[in-house]
Amino acid sequence: MAAAGSAVGLGNIWKFPYIAGENGGGAFLVVYLLCVALFGLPLVMTEFLIGKRSGKSAYGAFRALNGNNRWQWLSWMCMVTAMLIMGFYFVVTGWCFNYLAEALTSAFSGLNADALTEHFATVTGNTPRMILFALLPVLLTAMVLWFDVNKGIERLSKILMPLLLLMMLLMAGRVLMLDGSNIGMRFFFQFDFSKITPKVIMEAMGQCFFSLSIGMGALITYGSYMPKGQNVPRASIQVIILDTLVALMAGVIIFPAVFAFGFDPQEGPQLVFVVLPAIFEQMSFSWLSGVLFFGLLCIAALTSTISLMEVAVAFVCEASAQTRHPLSRRQSVAIVSAGAVVMIILCVMIPAVFDYSDWLTACILMPVAALGMAVFVGWNLPKNGEKGVLEADKGIKRWARKIYIFVLRWIVPVAIILIFLNSLGVL
Ligand code: PHE
């Protein structure tokens, strides 16, 4: 459940529709689903197995399994990626909190498409306000880690996440009854081969890594908490299916509404924030729908920020233990929070930082780290026996082990490298 909480978040509801909208809708969807099918299971399993086998977070896992520091650069990459994601992720979570506050006071009710777009620009143009709203989730996330109440949050999200899904179903039902919604459905589901460009493939791969939280060690940490008997392939499949369902549902809500209300699918990062209020306006209990949805979205975002911050906190805490100034867990929480605040300020003040940290992490850093992890487990560690990660789950059958190692050795690295070469124009 915790891993699903990490995976399902703004990546599904905010980022997926806007990236799909910018990259041709149906063409993107097909490539995205192929990426999930190709990379999802082997890489989610790999992170879980690394964590479960070593019992360590992303900081200690590679060293523990390899017995030396040669793969420690992977831990560093996870740390850098976590900090970079935190900046823009907290900013967008701040937007969600802002819209929740506005939903409560009906601040955007009755606005038409143009007014909603303007409203978004006005709100996000207010720098101090945006920084304050982004600090709120930092504070909440830090509190969860400070008081060690992860378990409570997970139990809570066990009830709230199904509620989010139910809410999304209701919204999809309403949106599909709108005039013109079929154009959006066609945009999202009609596959047009000619629209698949190297950029579309690269963005789809990046979105797959980002949405599934792979390639930055979040799932390693959660793997390290897994009880002995946990079935790793099954847990991985559950996370992947849930994450993909939520993204698909977000597309089915957003695109029909985009066309029915006369928005542009290529609006960029603001897309869902201008479209969603227009949808609530059409629902029977519009105030309640808006409040409930944005409230649940904030919680879905928080279960992701918890996993992001956890990677960095464990890193600072465990790395400092090797020095003459070991830091406590709480001191580490304070330091990482301060770092997150700096990142937020940079993202709000300099739009290029916002855009590039989003692109750089999803399209470059996470795939490279995942490639590193695949090579680490597939080529560097022994396949079987005491030192292999598959030892962490004795229930995996022999034929499945063979396929897993083969995919990790050949399919995953080759596919990632080909996608990189393709986007560089080498292929
Ligand atoms: N997967 C999360 C989402 O879709 C984002 C995330 C990425 C969280 C990496 C943790 C680590 O919103």
Rounded to the nearest angstrom, the distance between the terminal CA atoms is 40 Å
**Overall mean pLDDT:** 95
What name is given to the CATH topology?
Hydantoin permease
The distinct bound ligands, ions and cofactors come out as: phenylalanine
CATH class category label = Mainly Alpha
Question: How would you explain this protein's 3D organization?
Answer:
The radius of gyration is 21 Å and the shape is globular. It starts with a helix and ends with a helix. α5 packs across α15 (329-349) and α7 runs antiparallel to α15. It has helices at 2-7, 10-22, 26-54, 61-66, 72-104, 113-125, 127-146, 150-176, 181-189, 198-211, 218-224, 232-261, 271-282, 286-320, 329-349, 351-380, 398-423. The mean pLDDT is 95. It has a single domain (2-423), classed as Hydantoin permease, CATH 1.10.4160. The chain is built from 17 helices and no strands. The chain is mainly alpha-helical and 427 residues long. Bound molecules: phenylalanine (PHE). The site of phenylalanine has 15 residues, from α1, α2, α10 and α14.
